[in-house]
């Protein structure tokens, strides 16, 4: 599995865009190793985007915000809501360094 390195400043935001499969019941779940240096929140960009055809899934967007200098691993796993303990169909791992 590829680990993607990212760097951001404390107080800065890093958008993460992940392919959505909401029409098939899949959702992205996030795990943060060190919650003292970053905060991860979903970002609802659909209000700002163009309309899509029925039956298509929107990408899911998350904002990683630097809180304090440090390093952490942020893991996103895509799975069905009712299968939280099942195997993820897609995983993205980010090695995030927060600098001053």
TrEMBL record:
<dbReference type="InterPro" id="IPR018990">
    <property type="entry name" value="Prot_inh_I42_chagasin"/>
</dbReference>
<keyword id="KW-0646">Protease inhibitor</keyword>
<dbReference type="GO" id="GO:0004869">
    <property type="term" value="F:cysteine-type endopeptidase inhibitor activity"/>
</dbReference>
<feature type="domain" description="Proteinase inhibitor I42 chagasin">
    <location>
        <begin position="8"/>
        <end position="98"/>
    </location>
</feature>
<dbReference type="Pfam" id="PF09394">
    <property type="entry name" value="Inhibitor_I42"/>
</dbReference>
<keyword id="KW-0789">Thiol protease inhibitor</keyword>
<dbReference type="InterPro" id="IPR036331">
    <property type="entry name" value="Chagasin-like_sf"/>
</dbReference>
<protein>
    <submittedName>
        <fullName>Protease inhibitor I42 family protein</fullName>
    </submittedName>
</protein>
């Amino acid at each position: 599995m590829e680990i993607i390195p990212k760097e951001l400043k404390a107080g800065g935001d890093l958008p993460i865009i992940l392919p959505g499969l909401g029409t098939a019941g899949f959702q992205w779940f996030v795990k943060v190793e060190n919650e003292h240096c970053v905060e991860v929140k979903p970002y609802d960009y659909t209000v700002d985007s163009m309309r899509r055809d029925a039956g298509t899934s929107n990408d899911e967007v998350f904002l990683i915000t630097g809180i304090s200098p440090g390093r952490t691993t942020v893991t996103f796993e895509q799975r069905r809501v009712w299968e939280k303990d099942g195997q993820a169909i897609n995983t993205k791992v980010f090695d995030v360094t927060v600098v001053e």
